[in-house]
Amino acid sequence: MLIWTKEYETGFPELDAQHRKLFEIIGQMTNVIDAPVIDITAAQKLVTHLEDYARVHFECEERCMAATHCSSRGINKEAHQLFLEGLQRFKRDFAGSGNKHELLTILQTSLQAWLRNHILKIDTKLRGLS
Ligand SMILES: [Fe+2]
Ligand SMILES: [Fe+2]
Fold it and tell me: How far does the centroid of ligand 2 lie from the alpha carbon of residue 116, in Å?
């Protein structure tokens, strides 16, 4: 479970609010994972919601990094692209015949690790540029 702390602050309130929202959406996966039977439709809806929200956030953050000439703007954009590709891979795997519970658990764990690491190493390079 990702808990918001000040170490994640970028100094741009709109981006910080979006990061919190991403934490929240990833956290909501627990409800699907912990259910006695995996609700496939609910899981797919949540992943689509995450994808849509992440796209909006990434565009917003990329604009912000470009406007402030942030040194991480190139690497940030590439990382966002890889994130979205990873979600497409997950959707294909999830639609296949694999163990849904296991796939969702791995997805949630890797999303949490990715987001935490990404914000701390890349997004927070915006700090001081507002
Ligand atoms: Fe980012
Ligand atoms: Fe971000």
Answer: 10
